[in-house]
TrEMBL record:
Domain ABC transporter: 4-235
Name of this chain's protein: ATP-binding cassette domain-containing protein
Molecular function via GO: ATP binding
Mop domain residues: 288-355
SUPFAM superfamilies to which the protein is assigned, alphabetical: MOP-like (SSF50331), P-loop containing nucleoside triphosphate hydrolases (SSF52540)
Gene3D superfamilies for this protein: 2.40.50.100, P-loop containing nucleotide triphosphate hydrolases (3.40.50.300)
Alphabetical keyword list: ATP-binding, Molybdenum, Nucleotide-binding, Transport
InterPro entries named in the record: AAA+_ATPase, ABC_SmlMolc_Importer, ABC_transporter-like_ATP-bd, ABC_transporter-like_CS, Mo/tungstate-bd_C_term_dom, Mop_domain, P-loop_NTPase, Transp-assoc_OB_typ1
Length: 356
């Protein structure tokens, strides 16, 4: 079995996960704080040991608790790129990048040549002589990427590498990582809170909640047809959970949500109804007229979104807090302020029901 295969349980952090990363694949780990994303990276890197589990990389066993196998971090062929560049402060940028090749036994001249090549590849060719203290945050992260790739890892672990960068530097580094990962055919496991990172970098998304995998699939599928509450929030969509029925979904509260049912749904089994906030109309009282889904809500917050505002309802029942996008004028006319009551309505044609 090539690529990364992981099965691990760690009771102290309530983690029980099985995961696969194919050769040349980039997998994004999404999930709320405390869901186990960084813990999972630490297990792969060898910085943490699970209570039980087995980790293999390109058919090499990195960890097997049953057999008592534990390969130390420096022998795993794995490199972790974190939020902070963590460059060696006493070395120049070029010497930082040359560190990996030197550790692999390359001579000083050969390692220096590799450093120059990688600095050029990440757009930092003029920074080789500088010390880390002389680099901006974006420049330091570019050097850190070069250092990580110069080590020729079999798997690159990315722990929110854009998180500490300013709004100008983050897009450039994101595009750089995309170019390098694609042209080099690198396998990577990416932890992120930013949907743009997943869209730009990842082939597949895995969603973690409370130390468990709750959703997995191609990036486009997960973000356009989410089946977990967190993925729906990341994608900016409404999601209501329940069980599939003939023409929609029924929540545990007994509410019927009408919509177009995915043929893969099985009546009586778990399902989710997904719809866009822009499809939701807001009314001061229960609406009449054409068939639609309607629910009374309490406004939790109102957030500006350009020429519109996003109205979030207080979380209740089987869904996360529902959202509606309305004009500023409509929000003012309906007096949509936190604590106000209103009715959210969405036509059945705007709702799609998927297997849960």
């Amino acid at each position: 079995m090539s690529g990364l295969h992981l099965r691990a349980a760690l009771a102290q952090r309530d983690l029980d996960v099985e995961l696969h990363v194919a050769p040349g694949e980039v997998v994004a780990l999404l999930g709320p704080n405390g869901s186990g994303k960084s813990t999972l990276l630490s297990l792969v890197a060898g910085l943490l040991q699970p209570d039980a589990g087995r980790i293999t990389l390109d058919e090499d066993v990195l960890l097997d608790t049953d057999a008592g196998t534990h390969v130390p971090p420096h022998r795993r062929g794995v490199v972790l790129l974190a939020q902070q560049a963590l460059l060696f402060p006493h070395l120049s940028a070029a010497d930082n990048v040359a560190f990996g090749p030197r550790a692999r036994g390359r001579g000083r001249g050969a390692a220096r040549a590799e450093a120059v090549r990688w600095l050029d590849a990440v757009g930092a060719d003029g920074l080789g002589a500088r010390k880390p203290s002389e680099l901006s945050g974006g420049q330091a992260q570019r050097v850190a990427v070069a250092r990580a790739l110069a080590a020729e890892p079999r798997l690159l672990l990315l722990d929110e590498p854009m998180e500490a960068l300013d709004v100008a530097a983050a897009p450039a580094l994101r595009q750089l990582l995309r170019t390098v990962l694609r042209t080099q055919g690198r396998s990577a496991l990416l932890v992120t809170h930013d949907v743009l990172d997943a869209l730009v970098l990842a082939d597949r998304v895995v969603v973690l909640e409370s130390g468990r995998v709750v959703e997995s699939g191609p990036t486009r599928d997960v973000l356009s047809r989410p089946r977990s509450a967190f993925a729906a929030r990341v994608a900016g969509l409404n999601l209501v959970a329940g069980t599939a029925v003939e023409h929609g979904l029924r929540t545990t509260d007994g509410v019927l949500v009408s919509g177009t049912v995915d043929p893969a749904c099985v009546a009586g089994e778990r399902a989710v109804a997904v719809f866009s906030p822009s499809a939701v109309a807001v009314h001061p009282s229960r609406p009449d007229g054409s068939p639609r889904n309607a629910v009374e809500v309490v406004v939790a917050s109102v957030e500006p979104r350009g020429e519109q505002v996003r109205v979030r309802a207080v979380e209740s029942g089987d869904g996360a807090g529902l959202m509606a996008d309305v004009t500023v004028g409509a929000a003012a006319e309906l007096e949509l302020v936190p604590g106000a009551r209103a009715w959210f309505a969405v036509k059945a044609a705007e709702v799609v029901v998927h297997p849960g």
